[in-house]
Amino acid sequence: MKKYWLFALLGTSLNVFAQSKIDVKKEIDFASKQYELMLKTHPDYTKTPQSVNPDGTLRDMPTSWWCSGFFGGSLWYLYEYTKNPKWKVAADKWSMAVEKEQYNTDTHDLGFMLYCPFGNGYRLTKNPKYKEIMLTGAKSLATRFNPKIGVIKSWNKFQSYDYPVIIDNMMNLEFLFWASKVSGNKEFYKLSLSHADTTLKNHFRPDNSSFHVICYGDGGKVIAKKTAQGYADGSMWARGQAWAIYGYTVMYRETKNRKYLVQAQKLADAFLNHPNLPADKVPYWDFNAPNIPNEERDASAAAVTASALLELTKYSGAAKGKTYFDSAEKMLESLSSPAYKAKLGENHDFILMHSVGAKPLKSEVDVPLVYADYYYIEALLRYDNLMKKHK
């Protein structure tokens, strides 16, 4: 298989890449203007931008919140694209705001909290301070791995269950792979394989949709399959499916083990071929929500999926690759339209509107979410890089 399916298209479908449907510069310029405003309204580094409350007020959260790293990560992406040093300064400040979370062993979300800001920061600057923070954080994250069960524990407790693991946890593995390469500690690598393989075994249904929460008992026995943020235990929660697609795409990139590529493709196909996926490819918050088409959309799920598909494109054959690229491009077109993108100075200076955090918990329903912005900007950069490489 060729490394990039695009090479196989040169003779037949070059036009797929010849004309960009997304004006990336325009969208990054807009994101920059919004986030300039966001910086002015957020002088307090102890509270990170998160969302909007039901009463319309801004919702900020402490650095211990799982989303605390996304704002800094987005600022690094703006610096990467624009090369403007003001974004580097802002990104450093907002990354260092979450520095203390490197010692946090009470959460599985250190990949989001540390790798999104410091990982991007280190990639772009090679600042040794960032590396040390992340290596400490990786050790903290690894304390939540139980070798007898084979997975990283997510929440400390869920309902009556003591060892819940959520599909979101797949997003931590990129962080641990990085830590393994940089430190030479192979345990991080082995841990990641174990988590991915155990999740592959237990987290998916025959139709390739993902459960949200798998609850483990003694010896790694699965004792319950649940949801916390989806419509029902057996439904396909849109962002959970997105995390899964992204996570197994990363697994293939880091290991080149084809079983992970096959899994990522199965998960992507289940998402894209679902009869309840709207024509604009921005999913309802849950594919099985009871009142479709009168259910909220989740722009965050579309942003995560678009970013994942743009990477998955590179590893897939010509037909699948074209499908993934076209689908990601359509998602970005939709997210960049007035239907989902805020007007300048509105939406509390977040970029995207219409995301859903946890509707069953009546939390963050049809609001902006900081991680929707992060993955949207990431997807824009990935799209731009693909287009530039294959012009």
Tally of contiguous helical segments = 14
CATH topology of the largest domain: Glycosyltransferase
> What structural class do the secondary elements suggest?
mainly alpha
CATH class (first level) name of the largest domain: Mainly Alpha
Main sheet overview: 3 strands, antiparallel
**Strand order in the largest sheet:** 5-6-7
Radius of gyration: 20 Å
Roughly how much helix do the residues carry, as a percent range? 40-55%
Distance between the termini: 22 Å
Secondary-structure element string:
HHHEEHHHHEEEHHEEHHHHEEH
**What is the overall shape?**
globular
How many structural domains does the protein architecture include?
A: 3
CATH architecture descriptor text of the largest domain: Alpha/alpha barrel
Flag low-confidence runs: 1-15
Fraction in beta strands: 5-15%
Query: Count of DSSP E strands?
Result: 9
> Overall pLDDT, averaged?
95
Note down, in words, how this protein is organized.
- With 391 residues, the chain is mainly α.
- It has 3 domains: 1-40 and 239-391, Glycosyltransferase (Alpha/alpha barrel), CATH 1.50.10.10; 59-143; 145-226, no CATH class.
- The protein has 14 helices and 9 strands.
- The protein has helices at 5-9, 15-18, 24-40, 70-82, 85-96, 110-125, 128-142, 173-183, 186-202, 238-255, 258-272, 299-315, 318-335, 370-389, and strands at residues 47-52, 58-62, 145-146, 151-152, 164-166, 213-216, 222-226, 355-358, 363-367.
- Strands 5-6-7 form a 3-stranded antiparallel β-sheet, with no helix packed on it. It has a two-stranded antiparallel sheet with strand order 1-2. A two-stranded antiparallel sheet has the order 3-4.
- Helix 10 (238-255) packs parallel to helix 12.
- It is globular.
